[in-house]
Amino acid sequence: MTNPLSPILSVSRGAAWRLPMIGLTACLALSACAPGSGLPPLPQTTVSNYTLGTDEEVRVVIFGQTQLTGRFTINDRGTISIPLLGDVPAKGKTTDQLAQLIASDLEARKLLNNPSVTVEITKYRPVFILGEVIKPGQYPYEPGMTALTLAAVAGGFTYRAETQDFSILRKENGHTIEGKAPRGADIQPGDVVTVFERYF
């Protein structure tokens, strides 16, 4: 005798097999459409290769030469003005490279023999945060700042914010790069951080 429920049971079994597949497809679709999913991971910048930029302030210490030691701001031409040396190119150099350049200039001009020069950053470029935070805008950079601490400084997240991964726009070696970074990623001076809006 033919069971009248057989077609229904057959359809139900088929639907039961299809439901996990539909769920998996939906999850994959949502993952592919997640905020920032098209961005590559942001390459990490180490402290040792950080290069100086406009409006940053450096302290130049020349051992035994108090008249040459001081704080100098990098102007829009990318230089600092040091007594006896005049304009010295600073933008795009690391602190070690700038110290070596100053020492070489002092020696080449026969102002000092084998000078000892150190350079440290006393004021960094600001950082910027956009998107789903309470107070987007420009903020002073602090060493050790992460994407999450910057969001906290900006008043915290809005209720629509994606709080796990952010976009970071960074200038490195004269090129602008953008990548996706986790909330604990280190921020560099001049970075532009975007907090995404979540889709659901």
TrEMBL record:
Residues 127-175 form the Soluble ligand binding domain. It comes from the Bacteria. Keywords: Signal. GO terms for molecular function: polysaccharide transmembrane transporter activity. Pfam families: Poly_export, SLBB. The keyword Metal-binding does not apply. This is Polysaccharide export protein. InterPro entries: Poly_export (IPR049712), Poly_export_N (IPR003715), Soluble_ligand-bd (IPR019554). The keyword Nucleotide-binding does not apply. Residues 46-121 form the Polysaccharide export protein N-terminal domain. Coiled coil: none annotated.
